[in-house]
Amino acid sequence: MSPHFQTYDRPHRDRRDWQNIKGMVPFLWEYRGRALLALISLILAKSANVGVPVVLKEIVDGLEQAEKTQLMLPLFLLLAYGALKLSSSAFNELRDAIFARVRFHAMRRLSTRVMHHLHNLSLRYHLERRTGAISRDLERGTRSVSSILNYMVFSILPMLVEFSLVAAILLINYDPHFALITFGTVAVYIAFTFAITEWRMEYRLEANRQESSANNQAFDALINYETVKYFGNERLEQERYDRTLDGWENSSVMAQTSMSLLNFGQGAIIAVGVTIIMIYAANGVVEGSMSIGDLVLVNAFMLQIFIPLNFLGIVYRQIKYALADMDLIFKLLELEPEIRDKEDARSLQVNGGAIRFEQVSFSYQEDRAILHGVDFAVEPGEKVAIVGQSGAGKSTLGRLLFRFYDVSEGCIRIDGQDLREVTQQSLRAAIGIVPQDTVLFNDTILYNLQYGRPEARREEIETAARMAHIHDFIASLPQGYDTLVGERGLKLSGGEKQRIAIARAMLKRPRILLFDEATSSLDSRTEQAIQVTLKEVARHHTTLVIAHRLSTIVDAQRILVMDQGRIVESGSHAELLARNGRYAEMWRLQLDDREKSGSSENVPSQELSQP
């Protein structure tokens, strides 16, 4: 079950609903003047609307009296009738035009706040999230703000204003029975609507949950399209998707069926109320206590109240659904980032760029330790490599250096400054990374390169591309730097993506460089060219290299060998080989593998120019 959905509970939901409605106020406050003008326009529109039956009554009574004397056209009243109709329409449209800025600005502000909050949440949340479900939840949640504002301003408030005006006229001018019947019908209608809607809400929430789950499965299957094809599991994915949609279908059918019951009940209540009102009004005309104009007025008032009231059932249901959707957004905003800057955190001051891991221990989960007392230093300008088998904890060191997680024990320092004492923004600005799995934005090559330093000039971008040996390839493409790379960079080969990542890191001009298997997807010739470039770049930077291919780090001043979260060996390439320990064993195994494979190069990269 999605963590955003909970079993529907009335008292809890009511508290959440009011809390979420109050949470909308800050997004509206910026345009409170417009909101007030829209409210004034609403009152004027409804006053004109209520005035129409009053004028109509006078027209009917005037014509009735004229028949007894001399028939005359009540021109003034007819003009007033038309003016009120026009005024009602004009003020309604003015209200819509004024409030549009308020509504869409609130949606914009909430959307940007959610995006900002998602970026502030820690890596652990993003590793555990379900992208498809989150995407659908965010879409519904943001849309719910617009829905609630629409219903409140264009349905609920107009109905309340109109009902208040009609009630005042009935109480002042007519027998209390009319007001009593009207109030009683409305009260029964609202109570019935609330009760049935609360019961129906369970089906709607379940349908939402199933829809989000199905959407997540569809996203997951499409993102992993190649894996699905590799194993021929199209049928498996379709059946899994269909099973989830089956649950959505059943819940949706129950929601629709119960809505038919609700609509019938609402119609029956309105029919009974209007019938009783008309019986009283007709009896009043017969007895002479009411004129035909009064009958027309009461009938018109009933239509003005009960026709919108019939729509109130739909509005109430939609508001409840929108509040449930909005709850997803506000619960997300309530999530606290795991990693936060201290209140007095200062910017990292990088001088030489010295890195120090001091007895660092770390675990993603309490029952499974990843690092055990890791202790080493990288001096300014030094190149240190970290090697080891998969699962040894190498990549975890990189995540800790970027402070995606805080250490469980010990500390990490840069130029003597504890990473927990400085701002995350300044820390990450000081480090450039070339990751093993380079993921690009679905935009142009230029945009992805410029991401390293958005303010960089075109010449600087091209220089970085030449240094990464990717410029000639880009220039050969029909659209050059303006070529779209596809979702997650799928139109590029692994080697091309890594070279773009290298260029991007160079463009950033950081004091510290982190290479995480930076050349693992390159062919031998390109790797050799890139290694020369990396060596040149690393000469002026503090460099930490995480490597599996040992041939890429033989020039490192020091090599740290990790095993099961501990540093088991340390020294230069020659020293470690002479020691004939774990590193020497890994070196021999890789030499044997290269000899068996004939040192073959990687498959040539695919061309972007191909369809």
Summarize this entry quickly.
This protein has 611 residues and is an alpha/beta fold. The protein has two domains: 17-334, ABC transporter transmembrane region fold (Up-down Bundle); 355-430 and 510-597, Rossmann fold (3-Layer(aba) Sandwich), CATH 3.40.50.300.
Q: How would you characterize the overall build of this protein?
A:
- The chain has 18 helices and 10 strands.
- The protein starts with 9 loop residues before the first helix and ends in a 14-residue tail after the last helix.
- It folds into 2 domains: 17-334, ABC transporter transmembrane region fold; 355-430 and 510-597, P-loop containing nucleotide triphosphate hydrolases (Rossmann fold, 3-Layer(aba) Sandwich), CATH 3.40.50.
- It is 64% helix and 10% strand.
Features:
alpha/beta, ABC transporter transmembrane region fold, Rossmann fold, 2 domains, six-stranded mixed beta sheet, four-stranded antiparallel beta sheet, 18 helices, 10 strands, disordered N terminus, disordered C terminus
Order of helices and strands: HHHHHHHHHEEEHEEHEHHHHEHEEEHH
Task: State the CATH topology of the largest domain.
Answer: ABC transporter transmembrane region fold
The biggest beta sheet is recorded as:
6 strands, mixed
Number of helices: 18
Layout of secondary structure:
Layout: H1 10-29, H2 32-68, H3 75-120, H4 123-128, H5 131-173, H6 176-223, H7 225-231, H8 234-287, H9 292-334, E1 355-365, E2 368-378, E3 383-388, H10 394-401, E4 409-414, E5 417-418, H11 424-429, E6 431-434, H12 445-450, H13 458-467, H14 471-476, H15 494-508, E7 512-516, H16 524-538, E8 542-547, E9 558-563, E10 566-571, H17 573-579, H18 582-597
Parallel strand pairs: 3-8, 3-9, 6-7, 7-8
Antiparallel strand pairs: 1-2, 1-4, 4-5, 9-10
Helix pairs in contact: 1-9, 2-3, 2-5, 2-9, 3-5, 5-6, 5-9, 6-8, 6-9, 8-9, 13-15, 17-18
